[in-house]
């Protein structure tokens, strides 16, 4: 196991290098001149050229990338061209907000999805199963921005139960958390149902029933545990997707997260912040997938890493 973990950690180097190359190239393909955006549209050509030289944009792309990678290896993601603050100072508070929102959404998706899937699998084709699958289909199909606006209209505007935007209290997490978790909850529910139905047809489940074990013990202790591997895979992937895909939710609910920061930075041509945000998200996504792979061994002792 330790050799496998070391090997996976070493693979982080080429993965992050590839991400760095892609994001470095893509942000420089954006239309517009970041020097003009920073200097202002009414700035003189001489001042724009001075800003371009100060930002290092007058250097060849290979030289710019070399400087960028040199700074990254030192743990320095550069400075924001808008605020002149270190990129980590800009990103860290926003990243924490996004991480908290993602954790809430994943918790909702895990509890709601597994519960709905288990009920559907243990009572197939019943009214519970039909309602659960209908809600799952709705969750997958409903656009995030539309669902967010509908929830805001009902629970904030009409009923006045929950705040519609901002942060500060646990109640601020409810609407954006539910909105962000809707699609993931639906996918987890469908995967849980499918995996549970497959496991419930195994011979050892029949043997457990013949021994007189209670149905709840069979469903939870035997069936659900053996059905968890594909569910854990989905949850691991969804965590990364939620973390990087919270832009619409953060925009609808004015949530000060890294998604909104990236959008604002792209519009302002703030290359260092965009690059730093993407690298940080990519690093966390890879580490989450490593954690999921390690978790497999605890869920199924038959899995061996060589």
TrEMBL record:
InterPro entries in the cross-refs: BPD_transp_1_N, MetI-like, MetI-like_sf
Keyword Manganese: no
GO cellular component term of the entry, any: plasma membrane
Entry membrane topology: Multi-pass membrane protein
A Pfam match: BPD_transp_1
Keywords for the protein's UniProt record, in alphabetical order: Cell membrane, Membrane, Transmembrane, Transmembrane helix, Transport
Domain ABC transmembrane type-1: 95-296
Family: Belongs to the binding-protein-dependent transport system permease family.
Protein's name according to its UniProt entry: Peptide/nickel transport system permease protein
């Amino acid at each position: 196991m330790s050799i496998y973990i070391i090997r996976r950690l070493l693979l982080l180097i080429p993965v992050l290098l590839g991400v760095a190359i892609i994001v470095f190239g893509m942000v420089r393909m954006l239309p517009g001149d970041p020097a003009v955006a920073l200097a202002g549209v009414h700035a003189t050509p001489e001042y724009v050229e001075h800003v371009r030289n100060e930002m290092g944009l007058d250097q060849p792309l290979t030289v710019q990338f070399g400087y960028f990678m040199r700074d990254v290896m030192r743990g320095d993601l550069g400075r924001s061209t808008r605020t002149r603050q270190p990129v980590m100072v800009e990103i860290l508070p926003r990243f924490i907000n996004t991480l908290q929102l993602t954790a809430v959404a994943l918790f909702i998706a895990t509890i709601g999805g597994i519960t709905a899937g288990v009920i559907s699998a243990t009572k197939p084709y019943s009214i519970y199963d039909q309602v659960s699958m209908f809600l799952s289909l709705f969750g997958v199909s409903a656009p995030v921005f539309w669902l967010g606006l509908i929830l805001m209209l009902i629970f904030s505007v009409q009923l006045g139960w929950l705040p519609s935007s901002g942060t500060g209290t646990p109640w601020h997490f409810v609407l954006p958390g539910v909105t962000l978790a809707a699609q993931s909850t639906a996918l987890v529910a469908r995967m849980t149902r499918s995996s549970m139905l497959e496991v419930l047809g195994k011979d050892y489940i029949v043997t457990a029933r013949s021994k007189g074990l209670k149905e709840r013990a069979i469903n939870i202790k035997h069936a659900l545990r053996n059905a968890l591997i594909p569910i854990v895979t989905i949850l691991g992937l969804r965590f990364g997707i939620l973390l990087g895909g919270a832009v619409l939710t953060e925009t609808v609910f004015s949530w000060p997260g890294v998604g909104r920061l990236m959008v604002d930075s792209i519009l302002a041509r703030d290359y260092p912040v965009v690059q730093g945000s993407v690298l940080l998200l990519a690093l966390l996504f890879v580490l989450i997938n490593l954690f999921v792979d390690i978790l497999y061994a605890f869920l199924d002792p038959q899995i061996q890493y060589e």
